[in-house]
Amino acid sequence: MRISVRNIMVAEATLITVLQYGFLRKRWDMIKDIGHWINGAMVSGQGETLGPVFNPATGEQTGMVRLASEPDVNAAIAAAQDAFPAWANTPPVIRARVMFRFKALIEDNMDRMAEMITAEHGKVISDSKGSIIRGMEVVEFACGIPQLLKGEFTENVGTDIDSWSVRQPLGICTGITPFNFPAMVPMWMFPIAIACGNSFVLKPSEKDPSAANFMAELMQEAGLPDGVLNVVQGDKVAVNVLLRHPDVQSVSFVGSTPIAEYVYRTGTSTGKRVQALGGAKNHMVVMPDADLDQATDALMGAAYGSAGERCMAVSVAVAVGAAANPLLDRLIPAIEALKVGPGTDPDAEMGPLVTQAHYQKVKRYIDLGIEEGADLKIDGRDLVLQGYENGYFVGPTLFDKVTPDMQIYKEEIFGPVLSVVRAPDFDSAIEIVNGHEYGNGSAIFTRDGNVAREFTSRNLTGMVGVNVPIPVPMAFHSFGGWRRSLFGDTHMHGPEGVRFFTRLKTVTSRWPAGVRTGAEFVMPTVR
Ligand code: NAD
Question: Measuring CA to CA, which of 199, 223, 241, 374 is 20 to 30 A from 468?
Fold first, then answer.
């Protein structure tokens, strides 16, 4: 063959194509295939749709998650149905021992699990660990299930008649969870449901699906029989099957308000017990007498921790009277000093947002705030990190002079954007907190006990903090908001969780001694 420029170009192009193909193949080989956990085994299922999973710090696709089809969800429900009777019959103390072992396995695998969460969600490793520990505390609570399930007994409710109440499991319970806590929020649900004797089907967020499968594997290692806990990966197709399937007894949902409302309406219309926790816009009221240094530290962590992607994040600071200017004087340098970086950087205090779409959405909200006339004090839109140019990083952002009629105030941004609303006095601050459609959490910073007491009594949110910015209840209390932050009657985990995952049966019993009393046609009363 004659060596010509053209031949060299063709050869070069061929070589590049071969190299590129090799590179892409290599990359594709490195992309994790994330399936479902059904009946104690990882399966690909029949669904042919795949969802991409990204590393938010680099923007690279790292996985593909199998999105369950109707037959896949039906298979998980069938496994749960088969496993239920034997598990419900297993003594609570044996069920508790599985939980004890599961807790130990979480501790043993803490680093691995935290890395898994950070790789798909983006939050910093220390925060991933914190969220795992908060989930593990629910497992610790579930370890006490023999005590928690103890019923009530009354001897002689009538002459020689005894009565007692027991709480029995429901059957198949399900959980549908959001992206922002891929381990903790599922652990608000399945440990208590399972400890109560139910079987469970979990549908985690398709954005960060790996932690759920890993927890299911650990539960198997802890001794849980196959089929008691199943994980179906997927989107609304899977959710709709769970909401309508006649064998499903309950639905626990955590996510945004429109979907929570839809899940509540659909699930209850098909006769299921539903608890659906929705979105939030949490306010922190800062009174002029507050320790402003402490209030600033509190706001920093609560507004920007996990890049604001927490349902208990403080996204509105209500600065009362003279508190506003000195608060801003402290906040601005603190925000400027905040370290943003990939979640794997031990010095980073805040990581990226979860997806490219969410990154764009948060930036649009900042544009909107400017259009609406809010005073942008710190702009996080143009943050670019060297080596992570394709990551979904938005820097911490601060708006002052936000008013309740603005869209950036009314809507949940779910990003590192803090709005300062100025209120003339305490009464107007309370009015602002209670005027918002969401009622998840709220907090007040003050040194005045009477003001704090008024605040906790009069405000319409489900979780209230006094000099505590993120008042997330411990596992042995219950978690939940009010108004459009929760649809249903019970909060999650703690005592409310046990009530939600069981139903009450009251038995009245007599052992007649052989004396026949004849039929009675009047309402029985105790004489
Ligand atoms: P999301 O509502 O988009 O998704 C939650 C779950 O619902 C996911 O499993 C998702 O696959 C599924 N889903 C999404 N669209 C659906 C549809 N059309 N039909 C049926 N199912 C659907 O929420 P997200 O973006 O994953 O999470 C962030 C939201 O969750 C925020 O609003 C946050 O406030 C909220 N959240 C609330 C709490 C709480 O305790 N109240 C806790 C954590 C997160």
Answer: 374
Q: Whose CA is nearest to atom 20 of ligand 1?
A: 236
Full DSSP string of 235-280: SHHHHHHHHH-TTEEEEEEES-HHHHHHHHHHHHHTT-EEEEE---
Please say if the pLDDT value at position 144 is more than 60: yes
> In this structure, what token pair is assigned to residue 485?
């932050």
pLDDT of 2: 42
Shortest CA distance to 40 belongs to which of 92, 85, 88, 76? 76
Q: How far apart are CA 46 and CA 50, in angstroms?
A: 11
Ligand 1 contact via 267 beta carbon (within 6 Å): no
Does the pLDDT value for residue 497 go beyond 90?
yes
What token pair was written down for 240? Answer: 């709709």
Q: What is the pTM of this model?
A: 0.93
Gap between the Cα atoms of 498 and 507, Å rounded: 20
DSSP for 451-513 reads HHHHHHHH---SEEEES-SS-PPPTTS-B--EETTEESS--BSHHHHHHHTEEEEEEEEE---
Q: How far is the CA of 180 from the centre of ligand 1 (A)?
A: 9
Q: Please tell me the predicted confidence (pLDDT) of residue 178.
A: 98
Under 8 Å between Cβ of 43 and 73 = no
The alpha carbon of 177 and the centre of ligand 1 are apart by a number of angstroms equal to: 6
485 lines ligand 1 (CB under 6 A): yes
Q: Which of 25, 14, 53 is nearest to 210 (CA)?
A: 53
| pLDDT value, residue 29 | 57
Distance 228 CA to ligand 1 centre (A): 24
Phi and psi based region of residue 333 (left: phi greater than 0; alpha: psi -120 to 50; beta: remaining): alpha
Structure tokens at 143: 């370890």
Is the Cβ atom of 239 under 6 angstroms away from ligand 1? yes
As a whole number of angstroms, the distance between CA 466 and CA 453 comes to: 9
* Residue/partner pairs of 48-55 with CB below 8 Å, 24 or more apart: 49/237, 51/206, 51/233, 51/235, 53/120, 53/206, 53/207, 53/208, 53/209, 53/210, 54/120, 54/355, 54/356, 55/119, 55/120, 55/122
Kindly state if the Cβ of 208 falls inside 6 Å of ligand 1: no
- The count of other CB atoms within 10 Å of the CB of residue 305 is 22
Specify the pairing of strand 36-38 against strand 41-43.
Answer: antiparallel
Q: Can you state the angle between helices 292-304 and 324-337, rounded to 10 degrees?
A: 50
3-state secondary structure of 165: strand
Give the confidence band of 415 by pLDDT, cuts at 50, 70, 90: very high
Summarize the confidence of residues 87-101 as an average pLDDT.
98
C-alpha 88, offset from chain centre: 27
DSSP type of residue 340? B
